[in-house]
Predict the 3D structure of the following.
Amino acid sequence: MCGISLTDLIKMKRKAIFYTMDALLASLLLLGAVALIYSSYSPEDLEIEQQTFISQDILVVLAELRMDELNNTFIQQEIANGNITDLNRTLLDQIGEYWALNKVDKAQMLLQLVINDSLPTDRGIQTSMGNNTLLLRNFSSKTNSVSFNRMISGIEQGRPITGSSGTSYLKKIRNKKTSTYTYFGGFIGQGNITVLMRLPEDFNSSRMISVYMKVETPGEFRLYFNDVQCGSTYTGNTGSVSLWDMSSCNTSFVPNQNNVSIKYVSPLNTSYISGGFVKATYTTDMLIENTTQGYVRYYFPSIKGFINLYDSFAVQGVITNWTLHMVYDSIYSTFFNIGNETIFIDPGQNTTRTIDITHTNLTIPPGTIPIRMSHTNLTNITIATDGLPADSFLVTDVSGSMDDCAEYVNQTMCRYQYKEQSWWWFWLTTTCLYNNVSCVANECGISPLYSTRNHQLINQSVCSKTLLDIAKEADKLFVEKILNASTLHRIGLVDYSTNANTPTNLTNVRSVLDSEIDSYVANGYTCPCCGINYARNLINSSTSKRFMIVLSDGEPNYYCSSYNDYTGTSGSTNISAWWAINASKLACQNNITVYTIGFGSAMTPEGHSIMQQIACNSSLYFNATNVTQLAAIYENISQQILLSANFTSQTINIIGNFNVTELKEGYLDIYYDDINDIDTQNKLSLVIESEQFNGCNKSVSIPTGISIQNAYITSYSSNHWTSLLKINNNLVFNLTQYGASYDLLGDPFIVQIPAPLLIPGQNNSISLTVGDNPTNSSNCSNNNTLIYTALVSTSTSRTGALEKAEGCKWTVESTSSTFNVTVPKDYSGTKICMYTSLNISYDTNDVYDASVYSMLKQLDYENNGRIFFDLTQNDLEIILLTTGQVAYMWGPSLMKIEVWQ
């Protein structure tokens, strides 16, 4: 049998069992065969190899034998007593369980019963687990010792073998304390204002905890909630934020929609809010507020007096569609801008106007988008100290290519042949415009000495306008729009080709400007830096608001030798473009707003790119490849310049005659592709406001264990603009992407922060900038805060296996009370567990207690021993799921077999 391995013997054993041999006899025969194998070796052959085989094969046998393969009185008694419950368990696992339960004597008995008398008598053997020897055959000397270990997972001496694992989740909540904010945009006025506040469906006045109004306004007003006056008269302060407690008016609020109305008793010039909110804090039983993914509605405030709105909206996704609905009264021309795009300019009418516009197939990237609404043709309004006149220079390309035809028309033409009667032998052809009388003689004015023939009428496409003709018309339209608005505005002219021609300096005399424009002639090359330099140096001394409109129909091919050079030098497109771009940058740095227009179908993509770079920013560049759009572009630019002149620091001071305008209602429905895909399943929401920043920079700690659904920075920018926001050094908002002239743009009071940029469990750095233009900045308000919606999981992770599953009577502290709850409901013991601001205690070995503690810890987002809502026993807000007989993850423990001679 020297060639038979232990593996073969095991196979033999299983065949024997298959033929119903007694399990214990088969095992003893097996081990006896093992002993016979090793006794047949000579001492020289065995040595260390014998010890290796013996120790390895014993471990294999123990790991392969199952309890249902053994049968004797001891085992049957253990089964009857319930000490052996799993007959599929291996002998090794059963010995390990006895040892883990401190039943070492039974582990020894089982091991000795199976293998003690079946081993070679000339070998020393020791089997042990931990510090316990389970089998020992000792010798006075120990040579050629070999040992092997076998791991037994899930056991550890003195620890239970199985336990219970649990998880907890919230089925309901009661009295969750949270808040709703109704915001007043960067600037809302001027006049009486109404905004909407939405409260949950389960709201009633007894659930209101507090109502605060925190706004910046210089005016005096009365406040109404749902048309019920709250308090008496409130007086704001110019340039500072006021805080009023409105909690005494709790009974005026209702579920769902509420109107918050501010009715000024002060003059219109101080009847506005330059940032702020109404904050209602209340309790609710709703886990999370209902939202529609991929859709949000922005509600316009109602304004009665003079419509003057600077605000913004934001979504966390790519905007694909939006729908605008607006109802207002105004005899003045009214405009509405989203970002730097004018959505409509509606002529004033003495009737209620309803605007409905839908834009589809959009790809507007995520971010905060400014919006702006007001009036333009303020002929009955005198602009007081806040308005500044506008000085503008038209810098127009008159190079040779501007003589190219831009518009063609079909004309009826008279065509015939002619020749000199006496000596010409050949005929020539002439064509001229048909005079609507005849085409049979010499209508084209050929000398009477000539003979004619083949007279016919034809239709022919002829040039009706050159590029320069259209540019002249647009220049004159601009002059008309600006000077008709006010003679305080002035306009200057510079036309350029190979060099800048003699300019017309700033003037408000329309006839002088029109005459100069009419004199333009196309000739020469293209040197835009020549025209820009000349215009910049002439307008730099102006104390008014300054603008420059640069038009070109092609790539530059002449450049300047300095920023005071108006005579160009021939050069490549690259060097000529460099000079044009940098000449404009110098103008922008001198607070001259530079608009540019790429004109004509011959303009190359490179030419458009150069003109875009010449503008102070890309929003000030206009593409007029379609030449018929040039007039509309000049009208658009003139409107922007007039708005900039009328509105300085957002407030317009009004004196003299004035007709009230009213924004009655309006909303903007925004549809977007959500980029964050925030999971709100099994979550409850909580609105959190940070402490005040006290400046432009702040580090805000976000609690551990929550996720962010949405977040906003409030910015009390007063009469300035919120221009820049960075979160953890990531640029979140930059107003200059919409234009360098802030007075043409909306002003956000709240700037949205992409949820992934705020990191729970650490400090998050916030940096805010406010100002009136890209190069100007002002001090930040001390009242700015971070407001965010936190999501807290309503379920806990499953615990490990714990030996107890009893339960406890809990005393729990919330933000409003201390209450008791028993988990599980039928627990009738005397154990007391605590989760309060003064004491947190529970049995860490009880699966119920550990699961409840995990849940309470999640709900204590401030980590102060208080959760933010109440639990009651009858509502069963906490349900515990337990699973018994879960194996522990102890160990692994080791069984060691040592064999020696």
